[in-house]
Amino acid sequence: MTKNNLLLVLLAAALAVVYAVWFADWFHPAVVKISHTSRDRTQIYRRGSVLPSLIFRVNPRIRLTELKVVPLAEYETNKSVLPVWHLVSDSNSVPVLDFSYGQNIGGMHPAIQRVRAEPLETNVTYRMFVSAGRTTGQHDFELK
Question: pTM here?
């Protein structure tokens, strides 16, 4: 192999490394994109209290392993704030694309037994954390 050929091989290898680091998502953790919409109807919940009809959409369709909603202001001062809604999956959850706030998702259960989603307050910003294995995502939302 001549010096010219060796130089070209090293240049091609360097370009492959640059491509893999800057342009491919090989070394970046996958991120779940979350969006939400609010509907006018409400869901009756626990002896007359009402849950808003918030619908969340995750992209792509995934099997969630954990879902947690916390008040953002409290979370920023205390990372171990109690969530208003917290579901976990021990084994195999159903792949979801969208779900409503407080909904039971197949294959998931409350992190603490018999604890359900608490009603949301208006004009309070909340943060939702979702994870599907190593894939994670978060989304801030507010109930108007």
Answer: 0.74
